[in-house]
Amino acid sequence: MRRLTIATTLLIAAFSNNVLAWGQNGHRIVGQLAEAHLTDTTKNALVPLLEGDSLAEVSTWADEMRSAPGEFWQRKSVRWHYINVTDPKNMHEHIHADISSKEQVQNILDGFYYTINVLKSDKTSIDEKRFALRFLVHLVGDSHQPFHAGRADDHGGNKIKVEFFGENTNLHSVWDTHLVENENLSFTEFTSFIQTKNPELIAEYLASSPADWLIESNNIAEKLYNAEQTEMKYQYVFDHMPIVKTRLQQGGVRLAGLLNLIFDASKQHAEQKLSKPLFSEKAN
Fold it and tell me: Which of 92, 158, 221, 280 could bridge to 18 as Cys pair (CB 3.0-4.6 Å)?
């Protein structure tokens, strides 16, 4: 059986400027939506880590910090945002639950394990936990953007030129920003339109792990690749906005579920499948 191949060294400098997922509004929608699903215990645990900010506010931090000086932000942090997949069936084989150092992170799935381990550990500092929380909020958003689990050879759709209502852009950017912004909604308005309290739907979303989320994204990306659409107008928006809304809704619910698992020991029901492959015993 072929192993999962992860291309983390392919032209990182060229890719790094175009790896933003969902744009600012998309990430804020995920963060805002998640807040409605947090338990009181989790909300209290987040207070010292958020320092007065909301999940929506910190959701874009990992992208904003890529303008900061230093090797990590300029060269290494880009690899945290995506994974290139050649065989999604083997995604679950990529389990590095014992990751305890930023230097070990080679892709978004490693980033999940690192940030979760830091947040669960009683040996990590408050600054390390603040870093981990801000990055984790962002990674959940990234994992639900289809082209952050795309192909290496086109840099997750960045090299595929398309037109969106006559504007020259690329496939990655259409799914990052253009489709969301085309709704002409603030992130709070968008969130209120897609918010859900359906317990069956929430349970369905939570019965999954980050590897599953990336497999879902890869499956969507492959369908979009195979469609080979380059001129995108009203029909494209009509056909694909339901997918965008579902992915943002899933991201928000799953972010809340993940944070509840980390910070609220009583929150152990539908998320059991989520917790088992993620949490390392070494983090305790």
Answer: 158
